[in-house]
Design goal:
six-stranded mixed sheet
Length: about 220
């Protein structure tokens, strides 16, 4: 029987070129228009647009392999939580507004920044109270930087895991790997972040995905 599992996804860079594109008042594509509406747009969709392959890979993989026993739990939800620059952990299906994403762009994702760290700590502690001792907590994000690891290991300890195949890969390579594994239905092996070798040689380039041709 699979252990209950929840994924924590690192955020998109909300101050980059694609973020400025979606936040532009002149943008007319559907997601940008939705973001400017009163309801807003789903966080997962916005971050997938801003980050492209990397976040799309993380979200697709996490939705494929998350294993929460109770999806109606408002904290655990889909079994996927997204780290934000100033609002802690949020479900990818929560709606965010143009104002919220603009505030994300102004946020500094650094472990010493209290406006980032404190909401994340509060959300992570709430999550820890909701999950049982047999749950796996998997970080899909950079483990070579303390901005996520220092905050999350202080709360989850050895229960915080990451895909060992991430070591040595850049963001695009990680995104491509996750999309491939989600498509294949093959889950990556995880190891505890604490005590792991977080730097390594760059692995070989991933082969191109072979798409089926419809006749």
């Amino acid at each position: 029987m699979l252990s209950p599992r929840i994924f924590l996804l690192s955020p998109a860079n909300c101050s980059g070129i694609r973020a400025r594109h979606i936040l532009s008042p002149n943008a007319r594509f559907e997601l940008a228009v939705a973001l400017r509406s009163r309801k807003g747009a789903m966080l997962g969709d916005v971050f997938a647009f801003i980050s492209g392959l990397y976040f799309r890979g993380k979200l697709t993989y996490a939705m494929r392999f998350a294993a929460p026993p109770e999806r109606d739990n408002p904290i655990v939800g889909l079994g996927v939580q997204v780290i934000t620059p100033n609002a802690g952990l949020r479900s990818p299906d929560v709606y965010v507004t143009h104002k919220a994403v603009t505030a994300f762009a102004d946020g500094d994702v650094h472990q010493s920044n209290a406006s980032y760290r404190r909401p994340l700590e509060k959300s992570a502690r709430a999550l820890l109270r909701e999950i049982g001792p047999d749950w796996e907590v998997v970080l899909l994000g950079s483990v070579a930087s303390p901005k996520y690891v220092d905050v999350l290991t202080a709360i989850f300890g050895d229960r915080l895991l990451f895909p060992i195949d991430f070591v040595g890969r850049g963001d695009m390579s990680r995104g491509g790997l996750l999309l491939r594994k989600a498509r294949e239905g093959v889950e990556l092996p995880y190891v505890p972040v604490r005590g792991a070798v977080l730097h390594g040689a760059r692995p070989p380039k991933l082969p191109p995905i072979k798409w089926a041709v419809r006749g």
